Amino acid sequence: MKYKIEWAYKIKGQDSINFTSDWIDQEKAILVGDDIEKTGKSTGLTFYDEMGQTWNLKEMKKLIAEVEEEPHDVMVYFDGGFYAETNQAGLGIVVYYRQGKKKYRLRANELIDQMETNNEAEYAALHYALNILEEIGVHHVPCDIKGDSQVVLKQLEGEWPCYEENLNKWLDRIEEKIKKLGLKPRYQPIPRNENKEADKLADQALEGKAIHSKMQLL
Q1: Spatial distance between the Cα atoms of 29 and 106, rounded to a whole number of angstroms
Q2: Helix, strand, or coil here: 206?
Q3: pLDDT 10s digits, 109-136
Q4: Which of 51, 78, 120, 167 has its Cα between 20 and 30 A from that of 24?
Q5: What are the pLDDT digits (tens) for 169-204?
Q6: CATH number for the domain formed by residue range(s) 72-217
Q7: DSSP alpha helices (H): ranges in 112-164?
Q8: What's the CA gap between 90 and 153, in Å, rounded?
Q9: pLDDT over 80 at 63, yes or no
């Protein structure tokens, strides 16, 4: 989670000057906030997070201890593979996140039936990823979502229209899940060569190889 700091600098005999910081990470925000307060010349020191909430310095210090134990700094890669001959889809997802002082990578895939198109498989893969986020306790945080399907990501952003009834149903499911988890999604289309992990997992699902693993990263 990133934070922005706003404060007013007091000048004797003159109006205060208002300042706003760039977006910075939580630990740095607290260090900067401490330094600003030590000057004794600031008022109205306020922290804003990416979800639109506000905090004072004391609340921020308490928050960091609470948030540290919950999954945060979440990044999701997703991909869907499709076999037209069998109407099956392989769903592959990779989730990177931090919890406590540790960073983790979660890899998972799933094989599902009764798919109609590759685009539907991509939607199903993202919905599957959101279910995994719910399982590991991700909620009320920004979330970077990356995939090589511009159709899915642009339609979720509302930039491209979606005319297919079946895909609109997936859109509704995904948006409902995001709302339920209180996520702030940041969609990022990426080239296929940057989505190799999720792509491989999707292919392995189609081959009948089920994978669900979590590992701590250095």
Answers
A1: 29
A2: helix
A3: 999 998 999 999 999 999 999 999 999 9
A4: 78
A5: 999 999 999 999 999 999 999 999 999 999 999 999
A6: 3.30.420.10
A7: 118-135, 150-157
A8: 19
A9: no
Token duo for residue 48: 């804003």
Cα-Cα-Cα-Cα dihedral of 151, 155, 160, 166, to 10°?
A: 80
- Spell out the residues 6+ positions from residue 89 whose beta carbon is closer than 8 angstroms to its own: 80, 81, 82, 83, 111, 112, 115, 120, 121, 124, 125, 202, 206
Structural domain boundaries in the chain: 2-67, 72-217
pTM above 0.85, yes or no: no
Angle, alpha carbons 69-130-51 (nearest 5°): 60
Residue 118 tokens, joined: 């590759």
Give alpha helix (H) positions in the chain.
Answer: 26-38, 57-67, 118-135, 150-157, 165-181, 196-206
